[in-house]
Amino acid sequence: MSSELDDLASAVRSVLDRRWSDAALRAAIDSPAGYDADLWAVLCEQVGVAALAVPEEFDGVGAGVRALQTVAQELGRRLIPSPFLGSAVFATTLLSAAGTPAAGTLGDLAAGTRTAAVAFAGEDFADRALRVRDGSVSGTARFVLDGDLADDLVLVAGDG
Questions:
Q1: Which end of the chain is more exposed for a tag (fewer CB within 10 A), N or C?
Q2: Nearest by Cα to 50 from 6, 94, 90, 3
C-alpha cells in the first residue's frame, strides 16, 4: 500500500476507534436509518469517504478503486453499517458516467449530505425489467442496494 492509502486507512480507523463500539452497532442497526448518521457525517466531513469515487470536477476526490477498497476494508473490519457501497461507490460511479447533468447530485453525494440507492435491472437481476419514464421508476427488482437508506434518489442500472 502507498503511504496515501495507509493514511486513508489510519484516518478511517481513527474515527471508528473514537466513535464505534458494540453498543453503537446495536443502536445503529435498531435506528430508523439502519446506520449511524452521525458517524457517516463524520466519515464524510473529516475523511471524505463519500467523495472518493466522485471526479474532482464534481467536487470529489477522484480516487481509484484501491482507495475505495481501503475504506471498505476498514468499515468491514468493524462491521459498520453505512451507505458507503451503494451510495458512495456504485451511485457516484453511475452518476459520474452520466456526466455534467448529474453535477449537483454528485456534489451532494460527495459531501455525504444525500444518499442514493442503485436498483439492478435486467435479465439476471430483476423479475421484470424496471422502466424509467419522466423520472418515475416502475417494475420489480430483486436487488435494490441500499434502497432503505436512500434519501430520494434511486438509480437504475441494467440493460433495459
A1: N
A2: 90
